[in-house]
Design a protein that fits this description.
single chain, alpha+beta, Jelly Rolls, 4-stranded antiparallel sheet, 9 helices, 8 strands, about 25% strand
């Protein structure tokens, strides 16, 4: 098992223990890909049929509203990335998924990986716990817009997600926080 598969397994097992045999079955249907900064992995209107485990680099998910990009999520090393709603329901995606740096990741193709995930209790448990965790993260982010000021949301990133501030360009970070770049610059100066 190489270093990338070791990281992949470690993240899987942070959700649920997976026996060697089941992990090997899953690893056998995963593929490795390298992409360049700016490569589009998913376009709005296309059905998402792959999910990604990021080994190196990061991605952003955004949608267009009135021809303006609205950033909704960032995925870093050891994150799983996809439009999971489109993936599950075979519905056209509302989002773009773009590499923000040269990146390396494992990816699973739906028709290959779903039978494996559904064939084992520990892998099925991983899926359940993963989506449970995703739900709580999405709820936390959504509630931050209802309950926190832009300054509070920025301070939350400072305290809990400093990698966002170090790696994400201000224009994308401002959109993610729901403010203009000018407002974000003012907040940062305080």
């Amino acid at each position: 098992m190489d270093i990338h598969q070791t990281c992949f397994r470690k993240v899987l097992e942070s959700f649920s223990q997976v026996a060697d045999k089941e992990f090997e079955r899953l690893a056998d249907v995963m593929h490795e890909r390298h992409v360049n900064k700016g490569d589009i992995l998913l376009e709005e209107g296309h059905v998402c049929r792959e999910f990604y485990f990021i080994v190196r680099g990061y991605m952003r998910s955004f949608r267009l509203e009135n021809d303006k990009e609205v950033n909704v999520k960032f995925y870093f090393e050891n994150d799983f990335a996809a439009d999971f709603e489109s993936f599950k329901y075979e519905a056209p995606s509302k989002y773009y998924l773009v590499a923000m740096e040269d990146a390396t990741f494992f990816y699973g193709i739906k028709k290959e990986v779903i039978p494996v995930l559904e064939s084992d209790v520990s892998l099925y448990s991983f899926v359940f716990r993963f989506f449970q965790t995703q739900y709580f993260k999405e709820t936390e982010h959504s509630e931050s817009f209802k309950l926190m000021t832009p300054e509070d949301r920025y301070q939350f990133l400072v305290e809990h997600k400093p990698d966002y501030l170090q790696r994400i360009p201000l224009i994308y970070l401002a959109s993610y926080l729901g403010v203009s770049r000018k407002t974000l610059s003012r907040i940062r100066k305080k």
